[in-house]
Design brief:
Elements (H helix, E strand, L loop, with lengths): L3 E2 L5 H10 L5 H13 L13 H10 E2 L4 E7 L6 E6 L5 E8 L4 E4 L3 E3 L8 H4 L2 E4 L2 H15 L5 E4 L9 H12 L11 E5 L3 H8 L6 E5 L5 H7 L2 H4 L2 H15 L3 E7 L7 H11 L4 E7 L12 H13 L3 E4 L13 H10 L2
Parallel strand pairs: 1-2, 6-9, 9-10, 10-11, 11-12, 12-13, 13-14
Antiparallel strand pairs: 3-4, 4-5, 5-6, 7-8
Helix pairs in contact: 5-6, 7-10, 11-12
The protein binds S-adenosyl-L-homocysteine.
Length: 347
């Protein structure tokens, strides 16, 4: 019999399936979720508060598919841990654990590779293969939690791929992360990062789910953004910002913008002022990220330029911070680990 990955199931679907197909009482769903999502036990045989008969039924019908860790790099500087994870079909994705003084964050992938091909991003270089299933997205988090033997309370969708091009599965994973009987994470603890797919940003506004939205903007004008993000030809800056306005109207939530600072390209005071004008009355938070090592050969601006850019935003009433670089010694930038592995494999 074809077994299903139990990590593909939202709570209510799992409960109905267990009840209607396997005849398991309703409260069994809570016990099973507790084993998987809280205790990190990934085989039904070890779920000792279930009867032998129920455990057998579960094993006959389900698998708990956790991606296999094929490579792991730990930063000597700050403990950032980057994983290369292998899926059942042998494709690989990256996921990362990042430590901050006050919290630990899991960064997970939504696609194998990425179709967007932003010039500064290593993921696009390794091509695009396919969307990840719901269970494959959730499985990354569980694999890392198991490895670290810890409960991670913050998740960002900033690994490989464009989350909003895998919309339905990503939305299902938010449901699983939010659900009180599953991962039980609240709004401030889940961040969806997107290069900006306007219709999907608007759809996110209708969901009534708990998460934060972050948009990878990286340039204030179409002239600049076209050069580094091909998706901008399809969805120009104004259209992306307009969709954020609609999202904000629906949700009343502030939108975060990621802005990579590239030396001599988008780092001038004029660029910062154009950004202020572009946002207008939109309530935003800006994360400034001095560009990491990248395939385009872009360089970080000097500290002085970074500070001046930040000051211009702040003086003009925009909340902004410079994001600290993490794991700089371990191919920390998105997609680098997988690209390197693929190159080595093809040698
Ligand atoms: N496709 C989504 C999520 C994946 S990328 C998005 O575009 O938001 C996650 C974040 O890493 C994005 O903000 C992306 O722009 C950023 N990123 C990619 N390459 C980078 C690099 N070389 N330096 C700094 N940030 C990078």
């Amino acid at each position: 019999m074809q077994t299903k990955n139990i990590l593909d199931f939202e709570y209510s679907d799992l409960q109905s399936y267990l009840l209607n197909e396997l005849g398991l009482e309703k409260f069994r769903t809570d016990q099973i979720c507790d084993w998987i999502y809280k205790k990190r036990v990934f085989d039904f045989e070890s779920m000792t508060n279930l009867s032998k008969d129920d455990r057998q039924k579960l094993s006959d019908n389900f698998k708990i598919s956790i991606p296999h860790i094929v490579k792991k790099e730990v930063s000597k500087i700050d403990g950032t841990t980057k994983y290369l994870l292998e899926l059942e079909d042998r494709n690989t994705v990256e996921a990362v654990i990042i430590y901050y003084p006050s919290r630990t964050i899991a960064c997970i992938s939504t696609q194998v590779g990425c179709p967007l091909k932003c010039s500064f991003c290593s993921t696009g270089q390794s091509g695009y293969v396919r969307n990840l299933s719901t269970g494959e997205i959730i499985g990354q988090l569980l694999a890392m939690e198991k490895d670290k033997e810890m409960d991670v309370k913050n998740v960002v969708y900033m690994g490989m791929g464009e989350p909003l091009l895998n919309f339905n599965n990503v939305v299902q994973t938010i449901e699983i992360l939010n659900h009180p009987k599953m991962k039980k994470l609240g709004a401030r603890h889940i961040t969806i990062s997107t290069a900006g797919i306007p219709q999907k940003i608007e759809e996110l506004g209708d969901l009534n789910k708990e998460f934060r939205l972050s948009v990878s903007l990286h340039a204030p004008t179409n002239l600049q953004r076209d050069q580094i993000m091909p998706i901008n030809h399809k969805y120009p800056v104004e259209q992306v910002i307009q969709s954020c306005r609609i999202y904000q109207k629906k949700t009343k939530k502030r939108v975060t913008f990621e802005y990579i600072l590239i030396k001599g390209f988008n780092d001038s005071k004029e660029d910062a002022l154009k950004l202020v004008e572009l946002f207008g009355d939109l309530k935003v938070m800006v994360n400034l990220i001095p560009v990491n090592e990248n395939p385009a050969g872009f360089e970080k601006p000097s500290k002085r330029f970074i500070q001046a850019f930040l000051d211009t935003l702040v003086k003009n009433g925009i909340d902004a911070v410079v994001r600290a670089e993490k794991g700089s010694d371990i191919s920390a930038a998105c997609g680098q680990l997988r690209t390197r592995e693929l190159k080595e494999a093809n040698r």
